[in-house]
Amino acid sequence: MHTKQIVAAVSRIALVNAQAPPVSTLSTTMSGVLPYLPVSTGFTGVETIEGAITYDGPVVDGFTGPGGNATIQSNLPPATYMAVLPMTMFDNSTNSTNGTDSIITGSITGKANSNGTGIMFYVNFAGFPSESSEGPFVYHIHNKPVPTDGNCTETLGHLDPTDRGEYHPCENSQPETCQAGDLAGKHGNITTKEFTASYLELYLSTDPSSPYFFGDKSVVIHTSNTTRLTCANFTMIASSTTTTTSSSPSSGTATSTSTATPSSYTGAASKVAGSSVIGLLVAAVGAMVL
After folding, report:
1. Range of the domain at 175
2. Out of 22, 47, 123, 249, which could bridge 197 as a Cys pair, Cβ 3.0 to 4.6 Å?
3. Residue 282's domain is classified under what CATH number?
């Protein structure tokens, strides 16, 4: 990816000063959040913040939404998408609580697997406060991109083509039953100040015609009570015309690689250390694509 393209993408970043989000009670069904009312007697509703449930209900083995299990994504077009977190937090509530000025930074990159089935994700985040105060922290792919004003609330809920909802926790031993965008639920929460991970995710796609496509969506990082701390849009950084297929989920080589001009990158930031962001982008792209 050319430096000029990176600078153009980063230059579009804007800031919204987040206010403490209000707590509301959800007592009726809501697509992507509570598709069914719990069958337990005495249910009067569940607390939500910014449309997300603040605490989990009971685990229900094999629970799915109206759409049933998620579908493994195969025959994927070779492409790589990256979301880079802005240099200013959308919500500073964790810093107010802990008396710190930490900023969560880093990136998440998703690349079509070399055999055409699933997405290899590479996650590199840093700057989390102590888990004992607001953690474990979670991250998800959300349905909408971050708007130009950087408002993480406008990303709406998690990517959830099967309408599973959030009330019953995802079981990572049965990822096909989880929300497609619930990366933390399927692959692990963030429990350290610096967090790196890589894994194969079978239920997301680089095919824009698929309901599991993540390339035009966003990643949002939350506290344990679902408060949205920071967010960023995915942008295509590379595509390939040919790949070498392999039975190994993480092997294979890409050829005829071409870079793509990124779409408008937005996040919650106004004063950006441009060189730091560009350095992170270049390093990550170099490790993943070149």
Report:
1. 3-21+69-288
2. 123
3. 2.60.40.200
